[in-house]
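Onboarding guide, step 5: your first structure request.
Type a short instruction followed by the sequence, for example:

Predict the 3D structure of this protein.
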Amino acid sequence: MSNTSDWRGARNKPQGTGGTNKGSSGASGGSNQVSGAVRAGAREIEEQASNVADSAKDLASQAGEKLLNSVEEQKAAGADFVSGMAGAMRRAATEFGHVPQAAQYIRQAADQIDTVSDAFRRRDLNQLVADVQGFARRQPTAFLGAAVLAGFAVVRFLKTSTAGSSAGNQPQRQE
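The system replies with structure tokens like these:
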């Protein structure tokens, strides 16, 4: 019987008295330290992500400013080109002295082109795009014709500018 009572007694004894409880309280203190380290790491990651986002915003802003400056420069160059076309048309009108009616129409067209050139200089890009879209909706045939004429003018300008630069690059022959 003593074997039975020993067995039952061993079964009824509480196990892990003292040592286990101390270990679990130590583990909860360790988990608090880990949790604090995780929070600190998360804050540091958030700060770095915020710094990266701010840097990306600054770069995007700088790129946008450079793009707008480039567009403004191209807009001014385009306005100068259009104004030059108007001047060429006025010079051509003087050649039509024997047909005064044609010369008058050419001068009126040159005046309209100067008006467009001035509009390029005064308006910002959004206004210009809105104006072109509105004109294209109101007068699609005239818009298409103007686009074709502008294309021809650009091609002619590019041909003359590349022909002039390639002629300057040719070595001169000495005879």
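Each response can be followed by summary notes, for example: Residues 19-95 form the longest helix (77 residues).
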